[in-house]
Amino acid sequence: MKRGADNLVARAQQRSRSWAKRLAPAAWLLGATSAILMLVMWPMTAIYLAVASLPTLAMALVDDDPERRGTLCVGALNFAGSLPFALLSLGGGLKYVPLTWGTAYVYAYLGAVVGIVLYFAIPFLLRRIVRVEEEREKRRLTERQEALVEEWGANVSSIKLDFSRSDEIR
């Protein structure tokens, strides 16, 4: 049963990768066209977004994960922090109040910091949770094994239990 599920997951991942490879040139073209259009129509907003997205660029340069999870996590939260101010500047709200630009960068970089913390903290927490669950299961099975030894004799306890799954997480 488990092999069938693993096979289905592997096939779904393969299909996903093939679609991503086919759509990658179109995504780059759309992104470059949008960036040029924004730079021409709203140069101050484009400059703000370029400077505000520096943490995402830095994460993209150091992220060695083939699926770019770190870049996606930092980039999404960095973009979420900078988007309200970019939309305000498109409407003219930031042209008249230049002091809010400092606040805009604080929110953009704060979003990136939250993304970095989440990227590094979640695997650590998951490994810890898995270790606690492994210890709990080991205790439960050891108690069960001791009960079986009392009931059936010492031959039941010749098998050693191994529960190390926490090393499989990232």
Tally of discrete structural domains: 2
Radius of gyration: 25 Å
How is the main sheet built? none
Our estimate of the beta-strand percent is: under 5%
Describe what this molecule looks like in 3D:
The protein is mainly alpha-helical. The chain folds into two domains: 1-41; 43-168. The chain is 79% helix and 0% strand. It has five helices and no strands. The protein has helices at 2-41, 43-52, 54-62, 69-90, 100-152. Helix 2 (43-52) packs antiparallel against helix 4, helix 3 runs antiparallel to helix 4 (69-90) and helix 4 packs antiparallel against helix 5 (100-152). The longest helix is centred in the C-terminal third of the chain and has 53 residues, at 100-152. The radius of gyration is 25 Å and the shape is elongated. The chain starts with a helix and ends in an 18-residue tail after the last helix. 14% of the residues are buried. The model has no long low-confidence stretch (mean pLDDT 81).
